[in-house]
Structure formats: structure tokens, C-alpha cells
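Escalation from tier 1.

The customer reports that the assembly of two entities below gives different C-alpha cells on two consecutive runs. Tier 1 could not reproduce it. I'm attaching the input and our single run for tier 2 to review.
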Amino acid sequence: MMNTILEVERLSKSFGSHTALKDINFSVKQGEIISVLGPSGCGKSTLLQLIAGLQQPDEGEIRLRGTTVASVSRLVPPEKRGINMVFQDYALWPHMTIYDNMAYGLRRKKLPAAAIREQLAELVALLHLEGLEDRLPPQLSGGQQQRVAIARALATKPDLLLLDEPLSNLDMRLRIEMRSEMAYLFRQLGTTVFHVTHDPDEAFAMADRLMIMRAGAIDQIDRPQICYDRPATLSAAMLLGAGNRLTSKLVREGEHATVRIAGHEIVGTSPGYSKVLQAEAVDLLFRPDSVLWQSSHTVAANQLPVHVLHSVFEGKRWRVLAKTGDGQPISFLHDEHLDAGLEGCLHISASEAFVFPKQSA
Amino acid sequence: MLRFGMQGNRTGWLVLAVLFLLILLPLIAVVIQVLLPGVFFGHFELGNLSLLLDVFRRPLWYVSLKNSVILGIGTTVLATIAGTAIAMARSNWTFPGAKLLDFAVWILIITPSFILAQGWVMFASADGLAAQWLGWHSLHSFIFQPVGLIVVMTLSKFPLAYLTVYSALEWKVDRLSEAARLSGGSSWTVWRTIQAPLLLPAICSGAMLVFMDTVGDFGLPASIATIFRFPTLPYSIYSALYTSPIRFDMAGALSFYLVMLIALAMSVQLYAMRKSRYDFLSSRATRSEPRKPRKGGIYLVIGNLVFLAVVIGIPFGSNLLMSISGSSLGKGRELTFEHYKALFAGNNDMLLEGLTHSLEIAAVAAVIGLFVGFLVAYVLTYSQFKLRKTIDVISLVSLAVPGIVLGIGYIFIWNQAWLEKIGLLLYGTPWILILASVAGVIPVITRVVVGAMAKVPRQLLSAAQMQGASFSQRLVSILMPLIKGAMLYAGLAAFGASVFDLAISSILYPPNFMTLPVVINKAFEDLKFGYAAAATLTGGGLVILIIAVMELLIKPSRKRVKS
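Tier 1 run:
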């Protein structure tokens, strides 16, 4: 059975009148990679800082390997927690060589120079940093700096590795390359990782479990595929790509709720809300790639007539902007260009259309 | 809730305690002395506040207050206009000799005002250099009257306004002006409605700096007192202490007025700027690049050279010329080294003694000040200490408080009988000079070091902490190497400023313990202009030499910064 590395219980933190985190509970097992996903200001960075020991909680506690490291009355400083972190901007010390940067933590542990050299040689090879050891950080490319930051954090063999949006400073090509490399590396080493990001693709690529946050609270914590298929909240659905949001009238409650839009009934999925969908007005959400364009209306169920406004070529496919019979905007992906003014129908898959109570998020 | 135990908090409390002891307590003492006059001298009595109203009854007090206000306002207006205009010209245009202007500005800022004022006195007095060498006999009557003194003060203090405005002009957001042009504004309208209002905070800050520095200035009234009676508050405070009978209560009351004057100026500025939001710099800001003027460039060059000849040439040239001019009657225009010889003549070791004392005090003050200033800057930049704002305010207040007021406060605090029993009666010992000098250099060091720390992201320290580095290890292995250049400059600037601090030295020097500025000023008061000038140049030269050698020895190596 895997050991629990990190436990967070009833954690809250405020800054003045602003509540950054409220009543957060979760745990992380050894070797697990958790990705925290949420929009700016949702509290994910505050959570990371609390786990790192750079902030003190107002309520609740944090335990590492069963030992309380942070509570209202206790704060174990970061250097004594046995964790390490890769910072968003890498935080490489510009006055030290790459080797000195990587050796810093091991020197703090008073390891003999030979042992440090041996350990770093492995990391240098693992992260393809050969030949860069004597250079200074500004002389490295963004990707190289990022690998140095990872090597430096791994050098101390932390119980828990924190990643603070580690790929956000890289260009898109490098980002895609590095996220696969990192996911492979951490699984190879069995490192326990707590990873914070606002990029869903990065979170999917890295995570064993996804933690979706909004307004200082956890919306959902589950395996990435479950989060994708059954988002627990409206904002989780939007964050995971369900960008079409149509105001509808509830016709039938239940796990497969039926709604009416511009006189047409659409069956959707109501994850976790089967009993609370009581209000008449609800939101129907779906992703642009979960619908199928049909140029003529058929008798099949879940069809929504739309009027095409504009088509934009996105490289592989066309993104079509359209509106429903009651004037609500929709965007969907199609293999071909559709002329403005064209009338047609969208077939919406019932398992990929999510019904939520109406809210402002 | 304030929590002990967190490193930032421990350092925060330590810093707060030190700043309270060195800066706030002496200031509070000045106020308390007015309310409870005997409290620092062993007897408790409620103050007779009529002493405060005496400013309207005693002619000397009234004149001092009036002179301070006139000099302060006049210099502020003139120096702000001059500083702003010169800063705009320097930022817009490039011309031969422009770098000399930058150099001159810094020279004027670091040179103690009494040396500049002595230069002007030597130049413009009735039998001064202007009269002797150039035959300008009427200059005397122009300079030694309120307007003349305002002009002299302006020529010494305009760099404060210049530097503030020039720094604000360093970055510009062209988009803002371009948007105004596209909306139909002429270049003059754009300047008037967009650029000038955006510059207003800098102009106001510059003006306030000039005002505070002028009303608190002790050097000018002390120097011109030799030949022209123009008492200001700082000078009357000094007179209250050094004319028999010694009147601490009077010095306290006058200091109170001086503090109120500065507090009033700060309040006016805060009120004027209360609704301003000027954080207009965005990522689109570009560095201002001065360009060659399309026409009239030669006038800029000539104007600059004439200006430099006046602001630098007169005070420094006069000191130099006076130091090598013969002192006996009829030998005024004969060049000689007799004054330099007199400095080190066998029976006259006052200068050597004063110089040694000043250098020792300045060195100790710079080291202690660097330590305290570093911690203050650390707390302000990185800690989450909840009284950080208070620390910032105290360090800012100390920038505004004149040395003469600080000196009075030190007398009140460190001259109490009960301190003798615990061996802490510091008044009358060199330690009080050291403490006051430390208080004097903390604001300068803090500002320089805060500027350097602002460029070192907190993450660099957090990363070290994650690697297991303790607080002191983080400071020594990460922070200090990254800001050692700024630390060196801050330390050397503090050292240089302390050596020549006339106000603190004059008020606090122990009996038979001369310091360099006191020796120079006494010689000047005795009308030994040649000796004073030679002592100034010798002392100044030695300090510059020490600073240059220190810089050469400790200067951060640049060889590794290749990228």
C-alpha cells in the first residue's frame, strides 16, 4: 500500500478581507502526481505557498509524512520540511554556475564534495545538461534553465516536489516537449509531485489526479479522464473546454436531464446535480468539438437548428461561429468552410452536453 | 496577529527596536521636552506652553522662523523650476558636455553644504575673490541679502529636484502622447495635458526634498554668519546650546518648530497627491533617448558650461584659490602653500586630530549603519512583518529630520543623570557621535540597498530556503553576493557623508574631541579662510582617496558576467 506523503485538512487563508482559500481538504500518496488546475486568483498559488512553508495558514493544518508542518500555532520553516520546488521563473541564482546552483542544497546537507559530484553527475545525465555545468544561468536557453531548475530541486531527493507553473515561460513547442519529458522523468524516479498550472493540456499530460479549484475552494478532485468526461461544476466544465454555454429551460430532471432551447429539446448529462436541478432556468454546456454539423434537419433526437455567421480557418479545421433560433452564440469545429447565412442543425451528443444550475461563474 | 518565531518577524522587531532607539526616541524627546521641560534633567514639571508662543515675542526666534520660511519657500520654488527645466533639457537633448552636468549634480549632492557656502562666501564677500580678482565689488551687496541667499541655496539644492524629475523622465510611454496627438492635441497641448501632469508627482517630490533640505540646512547659515547675519532655525538652535547660558528648553522649542515646518510640508504634499494614481508605466514603456537638437545646439553647450562654471566653479574654485592665496595684507593675489603647511605645523595638530576622529567615527558609523540599513531593507523588501509600513515611515522620517534636531534629541536622551549609574551616559563621549552618525546614514543606506534588493526576486531566497539554507546562509550565500556592489556604494557614501557632517558634529562633539568639520568651521568663523579652504581640500581629498582605494579593493568582479 502506498504511504500518504501530504495531508491537508480544513485549510483556510485570508489576506485582509480577501479569502484566498477556504476549508481545503485532500491528501497525496507517495509517487503520485497531482495537478492543480484553476484560473488566476483561484487560490492555487496560495495553496502551493502554504505547502512550501512560505505562508502560514489561518485555519487547518498541513501534515508531511504524518508530521504537522503548518497550523495556526506551528510553522516548520521550508528548509526543514524535506520538500523542494521548481519556481515559475526558475529562480536560478545568477551569480552561481549551473553546477553550484545544483549543488547548493547538497552542500547545505554537508555532503562530501565527491558524493555531491557523483549525485549531480546522474542528474546531469538524466536531464541532458552535459557540458553546461560551468556556465552561468543567463547563458542558457529557457528550456535548459528549466531543466537546471528541475535538477536542482531533485538533487536534495525531496519527499514532495512542488511545481509552480513550471512551463509557463516556455514557447509552445518546448512546452509540449517538456511536459511529456517531465511526466516521464517523475514517474521513472517515483517522485511525488504537487503541480500547479492554469493550462488544462499541461495538467492532463502530467497528472495522476487532477484538482480543479475555483474561488479558494476545490470543485473536483479525480482522475483526469473522469474530470474531463464528468466535470463536477459549471466552472470545471468551462475550464476543461466546454466553451458553449446556452441558457435553457429545464424540462425533465434526473441524471440525464432534458432541456429546451428555442423550442427544441436536448438531452444532456447532469453530473452530480440530478437532485438539485429544480430551478426552471439552467445552463447547457458543451465543447466545440462535441457536436456534428448537419445541413438538413432530421427526425433524430438532440438536434439544434443554427444559423451560420462566420467561419475561421484554424489550421486543421474550421471554427464556425453561429447562433441558435433564440439568438444565443455558439462555436463549433467542422472539417469544411461554411458560408455565412447557411442554415443547418447541430447534433449534440447527450453524454458530452452538461446541464448545470444557472450561476454567474 | 503578530507572531514571534518567524524569521522575518524576529528581524522586524529587532529593526524596529533599533530604529526606535536611534531615530524615533530622540525625535519624541524633542516633543516631550516642550511638554515636560525638566523630565530629562531629573525634575518633573508640566511644561509652560507659553515657551512655544515666544516665537512671536522674541525677535531672534521670530526672525529665525521667518528667515527659514523665506529661504525654504524661495529656494523650493526656484530650485524646482531650475531642476525641472534642466532635467527636461537633459532628457530631451544630447550635447557635448552633458555628462559633465550629470557629474556636477552628483558632486553638489555629496558635497556638504557648509563647504559650498564657504566657497560662495570666499567668492562674494566684500574683500572676496570676486572683488580682488575680478573687481566685482557690487556682488557682495547682491549675494548677502535674502534673495541672494535664495539664489546661492538654489544653486546648491537644485540637484535634488533635477534628479527626481530626471529619473521620472528615464522611461516614457509614447503611446499615451501618441493617443493625445491622434485626438487632435498639438505638441504643446500634449505636453501640458499629458506629459506635465504625469510628471507632477516627481516635481512635487523634488520640491519637497528641496524644502526639507533647505529649512534643515545648518551649513549655509553657519558659514555666512561670519559676515552676514541671517539666523535660521537650525542656526538659532545651535546658538541656544553654544551661547551662555545654555538653554536646552529654547533649543527644544525651536527644534519643535523646525519639525513642524517639515511635517507641514510633507502633509501638504500628501494632501496634494492624495487622489493621484500615476502607475502608468507599462511593458510598452521605452527608455528615453535624448537626441541632437535640430538648431541652437551651441547655445545649449555654452549655457551648460556657464552654468557649471557658476555652480561648481565658484564654490570649489574659491576654496582652491583661497587655499593657495597669501594671507597677509597685500599678498592677496600671491600664490603660496603656506596654508597647507600650517595644517600640519608642529604646534598645530588640531586638523590631524579632527581628521583622525572624523575618519574613525565615519568608518564605525558606516559599518554599523550598513548592518542596520541592510536589515531594514531586508524587512522592507522581503519580510511579511506586519509593522513593515511603520519601519518604512520611520526610515523616511529620518531622511527628513535635520541633523541639528537629531542632535538635540540625542542630548535629551543620552544626557540623563540616571544613565551614569549604568555606564550609558553617552553625552560627552565619542559614542554619541557614532550613534547619531549611524542614525544619519541609515536612511541613505536603506534607500540604496532597497533599490538593489528590489532587483533580486524573493524566489531566489525561497529557492535557497527550499534547498535547506538557514536565514543567515541565505543572506550570506545568495543576497549579499547579488547586491554587494550596492552595499559597497552605500557604505562608502555613508562614510563620506559622516566625515563631513557639520550639524551633528557641532552639536555633539565631546570636550577636547575635535572633528574635521568643526575644525574647518571654527577656522572659518575666525576668518582664517585660507586655512579653512586648505583643510577642506585636504580632508576632502583624503576621503576621496580612501573611497577610491576601498572601491578598487572591494569592487565586485565583473569578469563572470559574460552574457
